UniProtKB/TrEMBL annotation:
InterPro entries for this protein: DEAD/DEAH_box_helicase_dom, DEAD/DEAH_RhlB, DEAD_box_RNA_helicase, DEAD_helicase_RhlE, Helicase_ATP-bd, Helicase_C-like, P-loop_NTPase, RNA-helicase_DEAD-box_CS
Sequence motif Q motif, location on chain: 1-29
UniProt keyword Cell membrane, yes or no: no
Keywords carried by this UniProt record: ATP-binding, Cytoplasm, Helicase, Hydrolase, Nucleotide-binding, Ribosome biogenesis
Principal subcellular localization: cytoplasm
Protein name (record): ATP-dependent RNA helicase RhlE
EC annotation from Swiss-Prot or TrEMBL: 3.6.4.13
Family matches, as SMART domains: DEXDc, HELICc
Residue intervals of the Helicase ATP-binding domain: 32-206
Stretches for region Disordered: 377-444
Bias-annotated ranges (Low complexity): 402-421
Species of origin: Neptunomonas phycophila
Subcellular location(s) per record: Cytoplasm
Reactions catalysed: ATP + H2O = ADP + phosphate + H(+)
Length: 444
């Protein structure tokens, strides 16, 4: 299959070709025709599958067939959880819409709102926004939704994790009832399905990977280590293996800053990226990492959404995530486009429960390797693969040869017959039972 067969117009096909793409990814091959047919879509796809182009290409095509947006109005709205992801989607729209007379704009918090309001006065065909800033703009009467044709919820699972559910529900009340809805998520959790019920109408459901599966192109490994030795072990692995570009995940913002400072002292160029950093600092850190000026980027899960690097060879879980699904999303950032990637996790004994939850989710025991000189004092327990959550073990059939009567049944019978000093269950029931009315009284 080629992009030519998907129903896209010549200007879009030209832009796609200029980016060096000839064949659509599986998510694109399924999503693009569905969106062009005007269907609502729910799509589950891991990072690196091309899902952003899976909705930007058909949205651009549909909007190119209509009339431009009036001042302060928008025709398509893409909601994203983070600034970085908004910028990534905006880049995608700009690249593939470069030969179309369409206007797009990116809005998010952390920067001045007035320039964004000024831009919206001209009207906008595609608005990419974070929920909070969009509500601010609406309250300022800077954006109107009367002309809205298409709504896209990107990274819907992360928006729920970040607590945007109330903002999303409020935004839904402001939008026209007649619209096309597209929901993209890394996984289809029960919370995502509950959210979709109030937004999506009779959707086409697309899933290009098995639920909660890890990519086969990613080599996974665990290095058991005591928690205080993690930083030294990470520095050792980077230097020993000559890793040139490493994305390291930290559970906390302060932990990310502390680790980046430690690595810099070890002469390893590093930067931290998280929600407490200014937008300028986050943009510079990401740009330096992509360009090779920074060797190690230490990120929290939320800040890492929007990091889009085609050939990322190494991902390290300095801390295991509290949410097992985040492990799948983290390691999905390496091993893309047919390349082999490596995901290394530094795991202390106190994180064994988190490790067990991850292995239960993925149904895979992750191999372990103890690094010489970093042998843990507290041994990491051996893993045992449990069935996935919600799957119960089948009950063993009862042996008919054995007596199945409850124990002490005879004693209860004796108690009810007055042969025991201890009252039985039957006595208790009779003792508190209201006297029944006589038949004659009932009839009267």
């Amino acid at each position: 299959m080629s992009f030519d067969s998907l129903g896209l117009s010549a200007p879009i096909l030209q832009a796609v070709a200029e980016q060096g793409y000839n064949t659509p990814s599986p998510i694109q091959a399924q999503a693009i025709p569905a969106v062009l047919n005007g269907k609502d879509v729910m799509a589950a796809a891991q990072t690196g599958t091309g899902k952003t182009a899976g909705f930007t290409l058909p949205v651009l095509e549909l909007l190119s067939r209509g009339t431009k947006a009036a001042p302060n109005h928008i025709r398509a709205l893409v909601l994203t959880p983070t600034r970085e992801l908004a910028a990534q989607v905006g880049e995608n729209v700009a690249k593939y819409g470069k030969h179309l007379p369409l206007r797009s704009q990116i809005v998010f918090g952390g920067v001045g709102i007035n320039p964004q309001m000024m831009q919206l006065r001209k009207g906008c065909d595609i608005l990419i926004a974070t929920p909070g800033r969009l509500i601010d703009l609406y309250n300022q009467k800077a954006v109107k939704f009367n002309q809205l044709e298409i709504l896209v919820l990107d990274e819907a699972d992360r928006m729920l994790d970040m607590g945007f559910i109330h903002d999303i529900r409020r935004i839904m009340t402001l939008l026209p009832k007649q619209r096309q809805n597209l929901l993209f998520s890394a996984t289809f959790s029960e919370d995502i399905r509950a959210l979709a019920k109030g937004i999506i109408n009779d959707p086409i459901e697309i899933s290009v990977t098995p639920r909660n599966a890890t990519a086969a192109s990613v080599e996974q490994c665990i290095h058991p280590v005591d928690k205080p030795d993690k930083s030294q072990l990470l520095a050792h692995l980077i230097k020993q293996n000559q890793w040139s570009q490493v994305l390291v995940f930290s559970r906390t913002k302060h932990g990310a800053d502390r680790l980046a400072r430690f690595l810099i002292k070890k002469s390893i160029p590093s930067a931290a990226i998280h929600g407490n950093k200014s937008q300028g600092a986050r943009t510079r850190a990401l740009s330096d990492f992509k360009d090779g000026r920074v060797q190690v980027l230490v990120a929290t899960d939320i800040a890492a959404r929007g990091i889009d690097i085609d050939q990322l060879p190494q991902v390290v879980n300095f801390d295991l995530p509290n949410v097992s699904e985040d492990y799948v999303h983290r390691i999905g950032r390496t091993g893309r486009a047919g390349a082999v990637g490596k995901a290394v996790s530094l795991v202390s004994a106190e994180e064994f429960k988190l490790l067990s939850d991850i292995e239960r989710l993925t149904q895979k025991i992750i191999p372990r390797e103890i690094i010489k000189g970093f042998e843990p004092d507290e041994r990491l327990p051996e893993s045992r693969l449990r069935p996935p959550a919600g799957v119960k073990k089948p009950k063993k059939p009862k042996d008919p040869s054995k007596n199945t009567s409850p124990p002490n049944q005879g004693n209860r019978a004796q108690a009810q017959n007055g042969n025991s000093n201890k009252p039985g269950e039957g006595d208790r029931k009779r003792r508190f039972r209201k006297p029944r009315a006589s038949t004659a009284a009932a009839k009267s």
